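ok posting inputs for the zinc ion job
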Amino acid sequence: MSGEAAGAIAYDTVLTQARLADGRHAAIGIREGRIAAIDAALAGGREEIALGGALVLPGLVDAHIHLDKSLVGDAWQPHRPGKSPSFSVMERVAIEAEVLARAAPVAERAAALVEMAVARGTTHMRSHVDIDPVTGLRSLEAVLAVRDRYKDALSIQIVAFPQRGLVSCPGTRELMEDAMRAGVEVVGGLDPAGVDHDVAGQLDVVFGLAERYGARIDIHLHDPGAEGLAELDEIARRTRALGMAGRVNVSHAYALGMVPTADAQRTAEHLATAGVSILTNAPGNHAYPSVRQLRAAGVTVIAGNDNIRDAWWPYGDADMLERAMLIGYGSGFLTDEELAIAFDLATDSAARALGIGDYGVRVGAYADLVVVAARNVAEAVVARPPRSHVFKAGKLVAQAGAFVRR
Ligand SMILES: [Zn+2]
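and the output
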């Protein structure tokens, strides 16, 4: 404030009585969408919001969600079990097609899920969107419209996701190309072995599209055991060869949680060297990679909710604090330091892996902030308190746990 006339407006908004993650109490000055100052006290806000000692956290990042699949905002649909005793991706896809054929339009359901996520403090998300010959680009067009409608409340990165297979499903390759031209930033993939039965074939298309369009990559990998590990090694090899460090993510990577620790360790080291990140949602009914082991090996691990109340499973309310809690719970995380790791998966690490710049509660970063009644990050993770305020680029987008309609 030095050098400015007393009473002059220096900030669009000043958040007072804020608690920072390190325990300090401070005021946060926001100007033109960014954090302009953090200090013991600040004056000169056009608007002042007193937080009463609540904790200010960076906006949460949901690094894996499916906006086109969720039934949030629609009638309740009981889960329909598959007929085969073992999990089959293609059987579930067939059930999903029947469920979604009778569901409300994608735009309506996706909008309801976006509002739910923003109300819970998510300020960035990566949504996969199905690209296949049955849906064509219709779901993509709907999600692109939703992204535009909510751009002041939430940043959405879109993945073109070949849910019915890429090289084994005629017409999909061309549609994926159309999706990239339509403004998608991330090329998706799905079980190159288990779904396409052609690892090199699918990865040629995925990495080829990414190279041509300067896009990132995010591959769903449920393939188990040694086969899944070999695919991870191959993804790491291609990432290194193409100089794509930090731009490739593998979601789920179940194989890493299914093989002996020493085998997982070798592949973890390949992933770390190549700069391939791993996303987990810590599923309750399936082995998943060890967050501890991957991080110790130097792999960036990130978190997402994945399916939310859709034909795949009935759970979820788009809450990344709850997801962090579930990951901590499933990983046996008990200390404050471990709970902070679970939180990091849904904040700093996820922002880094998704290429989100100027992120965090620091001067110069975008004022994407979420406020909760908690004394520290560990308590925020275990208690998942209601989000009292959510700011996107300094604008209040949710208050008292509810999306702010404009
Ligand atoms: Zn998914």
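notes: The domain at 11-58+367-403 is CATH 2.30.40.10 (Urease, subunit C; domain 1). The two ends are 32 Å apart (CA to CA).
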